Amino acid sequence: MISLRATIVRAAIKIYTYPYRKRFASLSRSIALKNSPYKPPKGFVFTKEVYGGVQVEKLAPQKAAKGIVLQFHGGGHTASMNDMYRKAAERLAANCDCVVYSINYRPDAELIYPALHDACYAAYAALCKSVLSNGDFVAVGDSFGANLLLSACLRAREDDLPLPSALICLCAYIDMAASGDSYRKNCYKDPLYAMPKRYDFKEHEKQMLRISPYCGNTPLTDPYLSPAYADFRAFPRTLIQCGGLENSLSDSQMLYDGLIASGCVAELHVFDGMWHDFMYMFPRLKESRLAWREIYEFIAANFSAVDRTE
């Protein structure tokens, strides 16, 4: 059973999103997340740098750092870097004593694959040839950001570039074919994307699967577009978290199964009763605090023991 506060928040989300859900509107396109001028917290330095022609935001503690985290933000292919992800970078930097690099790729509703994947990989490759050259870093991606992260790692493996020492995939959106059974089982449950109960799934299956126009003419099971179908051999230890009510819950399960089948070490934590990106949207909920604590501990366990300043 989830906490009372989470139950109330979930109900409020369902009410707020109803006008969008009843017409199957994209939340990332319809609701603009706050993106105000950023001021880093005390004790941290914030800079904007360019790697591979792509802007990367760096948040670094003024004291010695224990390691580096590379963040791939989510938001489909339409939402840009915003306050929610900068707050996530703050939590990571403060609780893990680390430098956080966030790839600030430029989304656009008109972009077609592989535009965003190419941009993120260009930044990743350039970072790997400079500050990430020894591979001593942890990479995190949520939602579509997990897709971009995993795709970048697949390409890095081919190009003999360093892979992260560990991966964190939160509420992964990595099966662009939406083939998993959670898209049907949770079609009335997900407070962000559920359709009204008066709707029939078979009649609205196409709208519920939400095949992204970003895919263009690329086969939906292409592993670089849909890493759920990838061979993950030689991938590092991976932590996967997701909400039990997500339409895309199956994506996280497919990722876990694929990693295990490839001989990798992976952990999957499904938070019953929770929704997509709950730990980012409402970090103070009991369930979110548990998720973040698990993330911090996972990162700490995968940093080297040597302090470093970047």
Automatic annotation (TrEMBL):
It holds the Pfam family Abhydrolase_3. GO terms for molecular function: hydrolase activity. Transmembrane segments: none annotated. Keywords: Hydrolase. Residues 69-279 form the Alpha/beta hydrolase fold-3 domain. This is Alpha/beta hydrolase. It comes from Candidatus Caccalectryoclostridium excrementigallinarum.
